[in-house]
Amino acid sequence: MSVTVRVPAKVNxxxxxxxxxxxxxxxxxxxxxxxxxxxxxxATPAGDLRVTCTGPDAAQVPxxxxxxxxxxxxxxxxxxxxxxxxxxxIAKDIPVAGxxxxxxxxxxxxxxxxxxLWGTGAPREELLEICAELGSDVPFSLVGGAALGxxxxxxxxxxxxxxxxxxxxxxxxxxxxxxxxxxxFDRLAQDGHVPVxxxxxxxxxxLAKGDPDALAEALTNDLQPAALSLxxxxxxxxxxxxxxxxxxxxxxxxxxxxxxxxxxxxxxxxVARALHASGTCRSVRVAxxxxxxxxxx
Length: 297
Prior knowledge:
By secondary structure, this protein is an alpha+beta fold. The strands form two sheets. Strands 1, 2, 3, 4, 5, 6, 8 and 12 form an eight-stranded mixed beta sheet that branches. Strands 9-10-7-11 form a four-stranded antiparallel beta sheet, with helices on both faces. Helix 1 crosses helix 3 and helix 6 runs antiparallel to helix 7. It is globular, with a radius of gyration of 18 Å.
């Protein structure tokens, strides 16, 4: 017997970042949108805990305890007094180290898969607690749809969506470390006042109305200057997307993937072709959202 869970990528349509806290984290106002690029995690009984991975950039995925899927299985097993004897196989399609929460998605998927495989019957609230312990983006990977994340991003409030939003994602030629981007944010901010992060009413209203033009006007990412400081070539990718007709373009989360919002599926194909031809990125993907979070398939 095995259980397979499908889990989506995310794009941040707002990422407001506060000053560094004493614990090293940052308070956030983080508006997430789940989009239709998916990883699948399959849990199968095994003699011990191990993880394997296939798919694009699978060689970059750690197969030790730093993998959030491994830590999710261990955390659930510990809560229910059992050994985490499971083989977790990740079929990877979310970009690795791309700012789209691929590792967090795998953690949420492994948690749901192990809960189903072991019949632990953990309440949703408990699963969300474990997700929050694993990482700031993991709870949203479980929930999906659209949501506002506060605290360090783990406290979620569902956001209303009134339609489908179409995106083109351009994968960069190399990765960016999320901790490194936050360190650069702190360095750039050290001489100035960092405001308390607040959810954008304009972003939430645009989502609720399903209005891509309004959302394009409201998109913000406070980590974008730090990402561009570490990876200046991303500016060329953003410019190429806008020149091809994207309504707006921004770095996705901590990057280096860039997200290009377009009006509809036809526009997405046009912008994708132009970005691919621009030579400013490694590969291009088209996706739309919102979509549901981690689900058994």
